[in-house]
User: Fold these one by one.
Assistant:
Number 1:
Amino acid sequence: MAKALLMTGALAISSVAIAQVDQAVLDRGKEVSALCVACHMESGAGSSIPGVEYRPRLTGLDAGYIQHQVESYKNGTRVNVSMKPFADLLTEQQLHDVSHYYASLPVVKAEDFEVEASEETLALGEKLVYHGDWNRYIPACVACHGVDAYGIGNTFPNINGQNPAYVKKAINDWKEDSRTNDPLHLMSRVAKRLTEADIDAVAAYLASQPAAKEEKK
C-alpha cells in the first residue's frame, strides 16, 4: 500500500512538473512570437499582401510541422525571402517554443480573403480532395491529410481554411521543385500531375472550408 501511494504521489508530482514545463514553453513561445505577429498576426490567422505575398494560418497546425517548415527555410529546402532572415534568427529552443505556442492557440481563419469560384470549380476541388483522379494517378488529398483534410501528426498538415493564393503558390512551388521538403517527395509527384485548373479548384475548395475541424458540418 505504501509503495502504491508513493508511486501515485510521484506520478502526481511528475504531472505537475510536466504541466509547469509545458506552460513555460508556451510562455517563452509567446515572447518569441513577437517576431511573427507582423505577418502571421497575433491570432496566428495569417495575412496577405494581394499579388505580392501570402502568409499562412499557423493555428490548427501541429507544432512539429511548424518547426519542420521553419527548419526548411533555414536549410533551403523551402524558399521565401521574407521568412529566411527570421528563421535564421531563431535558436533551436526558440523555434521549439514558438511552434508549440502557435499550435496551442484556438484555430482561426484569416478574414482578408474571399473565395471567388464557380460551382463547377468548387465541385472539381471537392472531387480531387476526397476522391482524387486515379485515371491520372492523382490520389485524394484526404489519403494523406486525413479525415476531411484536417491533418495527421507533424507530417501532413491541416490544409483547410488557408488563403487560396497561398495554397496555389505552395502547390506550384512543389511542381517547380523550388520546395523539396515533403516526405519522399510525395507532394512534388502529385503537384506535377495537376493542371492549373486542378490547382485553382483544390485551393478554392479548401479555402471555402472552416479552418477548425469542430466547425465542419
Note: Residues 2-32 form the longest helix (31 residues).
Number 2:
Amino acid sequence: MLKKTLFQLHWFFGITAGLVLALMGITGAAVSFQDEILRALNPSVLSVEKREAGVLPPAELVRKLEASAGQTVSRLWVESESGNAARVLFTSAAGEPRAPLRYFDPYTGNFVGEVVGQDLFEFILQFHRFLVMGETGRQITGACTLILVFFCLSGLYLRWPRQVASWRAWLAVDWRKKGRSFNWDLHSVFGTWCLLAYLLSALTGLTWSYDWYSQGLIRLLADAPQNERVRKRGPTPEGAAQVANYDAIWSSIYSNAGPGLSAYNIRMPAVAGQPATVYYLLKDSPHDRAVNQINLDPATGEVTAHDRYASKSLGSRLLTSVYALHTGSYFGLAGRIILTLSSVLMPLFFITGWLLYLDRRRKKRQVRDARKGLTPHTCDAPAWLIGFASQSGFAEQLAWQTAGQLQAAGLPVKVQPLGSVSQDDLRQSENALFVVSTFGDGEAPDNARGFERSVLGQDLSLKGLNYSVLALGDRQYEHFCGFARRLSFWLTNQGGNPLFAPVEVDSGDTTALLHWQQQLGQLTGHAPAAAWPIAQYENWTLSQRRLLNPGSSGSPVYLLGLSSPSPHRWHAGDLVEVLPRNCAWAIEHFLEGLGLAGSDGVLIDGMPQTLDQALATRQLPDNRAHLVGLHAQALANALVPLGMREYSIASIASEGVLELIVRQERHPDGSLGVASGWLTEHAALGSSISLRLRRNSGFHLPDAPAPLILVGNGTGLAGLRSLLKARIADGQQRNWLLFGERNIAHDFLCQDELQGWLASGDLALLDLAFSRDQAEKIYVQDRLRESAEVLRKWLNEGAAIYVCGSLQGMAAGVDRALVDIVGSEAVERLIEQGRYRRDVY
C-alpha cells in the first residue's frame, strides 16, 4: 500500500512540478558558471591589468567612484590580486529600484565598459529563484524544491533493487534497451547518480524560499545565531545617511585579516547608527564562500564583532557556506561541474517521466476500451456482481461487454476477476453473472485457481443469489466447459437461483454469444442495441514456409511467415485465429458417390459460390449416408462450418511479418489435420490465409522490467520466441529459456537463432531437454528441478515464469516441479501477482 501511494504521488508531482524543476535546473546550471561565462563574453571589460603598486585602498576607490558617478557607494567588492574587475553598488533614492551593478578597475578607480550579458543573467537568476513572478514565484519554486526532496526519497524507495549489493543494478544503464524499459533505465539510474546532488541543491535552496526554514537552520547550526546573516525582506529603512570613514574601515579590515587578505566586500548600512558589515576571504580559504565577517562602526572603524570562518564549528561553517554548497563550489571545481551536470539533467527526468506516464496511460486506455460505455456505480441499488475467469483475456473482454449492456439498462454493476470474489461477496450479492473459460481439459484458468481452492466446493448458503453462467470452451476437449459446468452445478447446490440456463460457447461461436445478449435483454427489459463487435477475418498472404526439423522421427514442424497489405499491431504473447480450408483432394473424395459436381452453384450468406468453394470451409463427415440424394444447396446448408484454430504468434509486429510455428497433425488413417495440413502443405505459397488477431493479455510481458523464465516444448517455442524477440528489442537480457524436444540432432528448433542470442548475451541462460537422446527420458521440468537454486534466486529477484506448450505432460510437470521447489503457497502467490503465466494447449 505504501509503495503504491508513493508511486501515485511520485508520478503526479512529476508531471506537474517536473516542468518547473526542469526550468530551475537549466537556469541554475547557467548561474553556476555566470562569472566564467561573463568573463568569456567580456574579456576586455572584466579582466584588468595587474599593477605592482596593488589595488587602491577603499577610501581612494570610493572617492573616485562617487566623484565619477555622483552617487554614494553602498557596497564594494574588491579582489586584491586576481586581475578581475571590482564591483560597486550605489545607494538608491527612497522608493526607487536598486541601482545596477557596475564594474571598475580596482587599480585605478576608473569605470570599465558595459558588461554584455549582465541583464540576461540577472533575469536568469530571478527566473531560477522566483520564476520572475515575485513572491508568488518564490512560493512555487519553494514548493517544487520540497517536492524535489520527496522525489529523491520516494524514487530511492521505489527503485530499490533486489540485488542491493550489485553496483550495476544501481548505476549501470543498458544502452541497448528500447522503449519503456530504456526510459525507465534512464529515469532510475540517472536519478541514482544525481540523488545526492539533488538533495544537496534542494536542502540548501530552501533557504531562499522559506524564512522558517532559514531560521530553523540558524537555530540548528549556528554557534551564535544572532551573528549569522538573516535575510530580511521589506522596504529599506529611512533616516539620515551614514557618514563613513573608509580609512578607518580599511585599517580595521587589514589589521584583522592580515597580509593573507584575498578579497573583501564592504556593505554600508542604509541609515546612520547601524553597523557596517565586511566579508573577507583569505588566500588560503577552502572555497569562495568561506568568508570571515566583521561588524564595525563605519564612522570610527571600531570592530564590534569578528567571526572567523576557521574558528566556527562545522555546523556554523556549513551555514556560512550555503551558497557554496548549493552551487558545488564548496567542493572545488569538480563539485561545481557535478552540480551543474546534475542540474542540466533535470529536464531528462521530466521528459522520461512523461514518457513513462503516457505509456501507462496508453495501457490503461486499452483496458478502458474493453469497458467502453461503463460508468461508475452511483445509485443505491445493489450492484450486479460480474465475475470473470480468463486465461487468454477473451472472458474478461466479454465480462466488460456484459457489464456495459446491463448498465445501459440502468443497472449498477461490479466487475471482478473470479480470483478476488470471496464467500462474503457471493453471500452479499443478489444477482451475479459469471463469464468463465475452461483451461485445457476441464481445468480452471490460472487466475481462478484460488477461487476454486477457497470458495468452490465449500458449503455455503446462497439461497438469495440469482445467477447465470456464460461458459467458454472448445469441443475438441473431452471435458468441454468443464470448469464452468462445475461452477454452475455448485451454485445450484448451494441454493442459488438460475436466471436462465447456462450459455455455452464453442470457440467463440457468435450465435451463442448473441443468445447470451438476448437473454440479458429479456432479463433487463432492454434489447441489446447491437451484437457485440467481433474482429473480422482478413486475408493474409502465405509468404514463407520452412521446415524446422528435417530428419526428425516426429511430425514435421514448419516456420510459417504471413504478410498483410496493411500494417497490423499485436503484442508479444498474442494469438491468431486461423480459418482453415479443406484441400482439393479431400473435397473431391467427399463428393464421390453423392452425384454432385464441385462446379455446382450455391448461395452462402447470400453470396454465390461454387460447391467446391463452399465445401472448402465446411466440416466433411466420414459418414455420408445421410447426405446422399441432397442437391448442392441442401448439402451446403447441412454441413457445419469449420471452426477456427488458435496459434501462438512467434514474431513481433515491428518485424512486419507474422510468423507461426506449426506441427503437422496426422490422423491414424494417414491424412493430415485440416488446419495443420492446410497451413503446412496444401496452401500454396502466395495464397491467402484467413485469420484474425486475438489479444492474449494473460500472456503479455510484465509492465515493469523483470527477469523472465520461459519454459516450453515443441511448437510452444512460438509464444516464447515472440516474448524473447520483444525483450531483446527492448534491450532486456535477463532471459532464461528452458526448451524441450525429441533429439538435438533434428529437433533443436530455431537452433541458430537461440544460440546466437545466447552468444550475444540476450539469453542469460539456455537449458535444453532432448528426451530421446539418452536411455532415461529428460524433460524441461527435470531441468527445472536440476536448477532449483537458480530458480529460487531468480524468483527472489522478481522474475516471472512463462510456460508455453503442451498441457498434458509438460505444463502439468512444470507445475508439479514448481510446487516441489518453492511450495504450493508460493506458486499461488506467483499466479496472483501475475508472475506465473501459461499459454498451453
Note: The first helix runs from residue 2 to 32.
Number 3:
Amino acid sequence: MYLLAALHLIISSSLLLFVVSYNETEQNDIIQLFSDYIRRFNKSYDYGTMEFKKRESIFEQTLRRIDWLNKHRNSSLDALYGINQFSDLTPEEFKKITHLNKFNTTAKKAYPLQKKLFTNQNSVKDLPKKVDWRGKDIITPVNNQESCGACWAFSSVETIEAMYALKTGVLEQWSVQQVIDCAAAPNRGCGGGDTCLTVEWLYEVRNF
C-alpha cells in the first residue's frame, strides 16, 4: 500500500513537500492517495474522467520516481524527495509553466561576466557536514514564484539577503519584483534570466 512515511513537512527549494513510500498495491489505494493529493493541493479533477485518469497515472509515476530516489540516498544528509504541487504534471508540462525552455543561454555573451574568484584557504578547513541556516536568522521565508519564470531573480535576491545577514547580522527581505522589472538585458522578467548576470548588474547599479 501507499504510506505516508512522515507526518512532518520538509522544505526543498521553494516547495512544500510531504514524503511518501511507494509499494505495489491495489488500484483503490492509488486512487485514495491521489484523492488526498487533490484535496491537499486544491486540484480540480472530476473522479472517473479521462483527465482524472491521466493525472492519476502521472502521479503514480512520480511516486515511483520519488521512491527510487529516496531508496538510493547514501546518508541522512542527502536530499529527501517528496510530493509537491507539480507531482501530477509531465516533465514537459512542468517546463512549460516554469519557462525553463525560453531563456537563450547564448545571450550571456551580450553581458560579459567578471570572472573573479576569491579563495581564503583558512575558511575551508574543518567545515561541518551540515548547516541549517533556517534557525540562525540568515535566510528569509520561502517564496513561491508561481508561473513566473523568474527563478533567476528570486535566487539572486535571496542569496544577497543571506550574504548581507551574514556580514551585518541584519536579516532583511528585499524586492524581487524590482529585479524582475529592472534587471538589464538579456534578463527577460518572467521569461527567464541568468543569476550571474543579475548579481553583476546589481553590483554595478548599487541601488538595491
Note: The radius of gyration is 21 Å.
